[in-house]
Amino acid sequence: QVQLVESGGGLVQPGGSLRLSCVASGSIFSINDMGWYRQAPGKERELVASITNGGSTNYADAVKGRFAISRDNAKNTVYLQMNSLKPEDTAVYYCNAWVRGLGYWGKGTLVTVSS
To answer: Are 23 and 9 in contact (CB under 8 A)?
Structure first.
Protein backbone atom coordinates (compact mmCIF):
# COMPACT_ATOMS: atom_id res chain seq x y z
CA GLN A 1 0.00 0.00 0.00
CA VAL A 2 1.11 3.53 -0.83
CA GLN A 3 -0.02 6.53 1.15
CA LEU A 4 0.07 10.14 -0.02
CA VAL A 5 -0.20 13.03 2.42
CA GLU A 6 -0.62 16.62 1.27
CA SER A 7 0.22 19.71 3.29
CA GLY A 8 0.56 23.44 2.83
CA GLY A 9 -2.99 24.51 2.12
CA GLY A 10 -4.69 27.38 3.88
CA LEU A 11 -6.22 30.82 3.51
CA VAL A 12 -4.36 33.36 1.40
CA GLN A 13 -5.20 36.75 -0.11
CA PRO A 14 -5.40 37.26 -3.88
CA GLY A 15 -1.92 37.75 -5.26
CA GLY A 16 -0.35 35.71 -2.50
CA SER A 17 1.62 32.48 -2.63
CA LEU A 18 1.51 29.00 -1.14
CA ARG A 19 3.63 25.91 -1.56
CA LEU A 20 1.93 22.54 -1.38
CA SER A 21 3.84 19.38 -0.54
CA CYS A 22 2.93 15.73 -0.99
CA VAL A 23 4.94 12.93 0.59
CA ALA A 24 4.55 9.33 -0.52
CA SER A 25 5.24 6.45 1.84
CA GLY A 26 4.68 2.71 2.05
CA SER A 27 5.54 0.01 -0.47
CA ILE A 28 7.41 2.18 -2.94
CA PHE A 29 9.86 0.81 -5.46
CA SER A 30 9.75 3.79 -7.79
CA ILE A 31 7.27 6.53 -8.61
CA ASN A 32 6.44 7.32 -12.19
CA ASP A 33 4.18 10.26 -13.00
CA MET A 34 3.04 12.54 -10.19
CA GLY A 35 0.53 15.33 -10.34
CA TRP A 36 -1.70 17.82 -8.62
CA TYR A 37 -5.44 17.97 -9.20
CA ARG A 38 -8.05 20.28 -7.77
CA GLN A 39 -11.78 20.21 -7.25
CA ALA A 40 -14.12 23.04 -6.37
CA PRO A 41 -17.65 22.38 -5.04
CA GLY A 42 -19.97 21.29 -7.83
CA LYS A 43 -17.16 21.03 -10.35
CA GLU A 44 -15.23 18.17 -11.88
CA ARG A 45 -11.80 17.31 -10.55
CA GLU A 46 -9.22 18.72 -12.96
CA LEU A 47 -5.53 18.29 -13.57
CA VAL A 48 -3.50 21.28 -12.45
CA ALA A 49 0.04 20.10 -13.15
CA SER A 50 1.94 16.88 -13.71
CA ILE A 51 5.57 15.81 -13.73
CA THR A 52 7.22 12.65 -15.00
CA ASN A 53 10.02 10.76 -13.31
CA GLY A 54 12.38 12.45 -15.75
CA GLY A 55 11.14 15.93 -14.87
CA SER A 56 8.92 16.71 -17.86
CA THR A 57 6.07 18.99 -16.77
CA ASN A 58 2.60 19.87 -17.98
CA TYR A 59 0.24 22.60 -16.75
CA ALA A 60 -3.38 23.52 -17.13
CA ASP A 61 -3.82 26.71 -19.14
CA ALA A 62 -5.38 28.45 -16.14
CA VAL A 63 -2.21 28.16 -14.06
CA LYS A 64 0.56 28.49 -16.64
CA GLY A 65 3.11 31.07 -15.61
CA ARG A 66 1.84 31.14 -12.03
CA PHE A 67 2.32 27.61 -10.69
CA ALA A 68 5.38 25.38 -10.77
CA ILE A 69 5.53 21.66 -10.06
CA SER A 70 8.72 19.94 -8.92
CA ARG A 71 9.78 16.70 -7.27
CA ASP A 72 12.46 15.31 -5.01
CA ASN A 73 12.79 11.63 -5.81
CA ALA A 74 15.06 10.94 -2.85
CA LYS A 75 12.29 12.16 -0.55
CA ASN A 76 9.38 10.71 -2.56
CA THR A 77 7.91 14.19 -2.55
CA VAL A 78 6.21 16.41 -5.10
CA TYR A 79 5.67 20.14 -4.65
CA LEU A 80 3.39 22.75 -6.15
CA GLN A 81 4.55 26.35 -5.86
CA MET A 82 1.50 28.57 -6.31
CA ASN A 83 2.08 32.26 -7.03
CA SER A 84 -0.21 35.15 -7.96
CA LEU A 85 -3.17 33.26 -6.55
CA LYS A 86 -6.66 34.17 -7.69
CA PRO A 87 -10.06 33.51 -6.10
CA GLU A 88 -10.70 31.08 -8.96
CA ASP A 89 -7.89 28.90 -7.59
CA THR A 90 -9.96 28.10 -4.49
CA ALA A 91 -10.39 24.34 -4.31
CA VAL A 92 -9.31 21.17 -2.58
CA TYR A 93 -5.98 20.17 -4.05
CA TYR A 94 -5.17 16.48 -4.37
CA CYS A 95 -1.86 14.75 -4.93
CA ASN A 96 -1.68 11.83 -7.36
CA ALA A 97 1.11 9.34 -7.97
CA TRP A 98 1.61 6.20 -10.05
CA VAL A 99 3.50 3.34 -8.44
CA ARG A 100 3.96 -0.05 -10.12
CA GLY A 101 1.05 0.51 -12.49
CA LEU A 102 -1.44 1.71 -9.87
CA GLY A 103 -2.67 5.21 -9.18
CA TYR A 104 -2.89 6.61 -5.67
CA TRP A 105 -4.57 9.70 -4.24
CA GLY A 106 -4.07 11.79 -1.17
CA LYS A 107 -7.00 13.03 0.89
CA GLY A 108 -6.53 16.62 -0.23
CA THR A 109 -5.63 19.98 1.24
CA LEU A 110 -7.91 23.02 1.05
CA VAL A 111 -6.69 26.22 -0.59
CA THR A 112 -8.89 29.28 -0.11
CA VAL A 113 -8.03 32.51 -1.92
CA SER A 114 -10.07 35.37 -0.55
CA SER A 115 -9.80 38.94 0.68
So the answer is: no
